[in-house]
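haha ok so turns out i had the wrong file open the whole time. this is the CORRECT one, sorry everyone. sequence first:
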Amino acid sequence: MAVADLNTIERRIVACRRCPELRAYCANVAREKRRAYRDHEYWGKPVPPFGDPKARLVLVGLAPGAHGSNRTGRPFTGDASGEFLYRALFDAGFASKPQATGRHDGLRLRDCLITAAMCCAPPANKPTPQQLRNCFPYLLDEFDALPRLRVMLALGSIGFTAILRVLRERGFELSPERPLFGHGNEATASLGRRTIHVLASFHPSRQNTNTGKLTAPMFARVFARARELLA
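then structure:
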């Protein structure tokens, strides 16, 4: 089967209607809006991946935020999680700018692509197992479209589970066989001569960053480790 390119995958994601309840929810959020963004034009659709089509590093998060990515149309853009993430990406040399405000802000990623286990914003940031299953084929397509991929970084436990499922689906052997999620944890996946490294980080949500569960130095060490592995 031919491997789709990222542009084709993006178009399929934006047009997706596998979860009608999520399409309705995202559209409703886009109509009602948050007071702070009442003058903004919301995206209100599934959010495709963003980044370098030749990326060796892929970040996998949970899902778009209702008033972040669902508003701006780009992963981790327009909310506090994105502010924390893009600063770290810039400091590590993966992003051209430290702030992300919208799809047309000129920001570019270098050797890095950001995606998520879910393409639509779920109510209360809690996707159902069926919704995750509906979205999973897109993550597989993205994996297949990135032949230079060498490091996969999970931002949160759901992203970690999705990464492991992709690798098992594509026939990779994991070491350890049953990796456990935890900040800074690592695993390797092998298939023939190809090896992919899996890194785990707490999600850069306000719940984690405001409480000190995830600090800027902790996040920086994860990206420094990704740089070491890519080198």
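The CA atoms of residues 61 and 116 lie 4 Å apart.
again sry for the mixup
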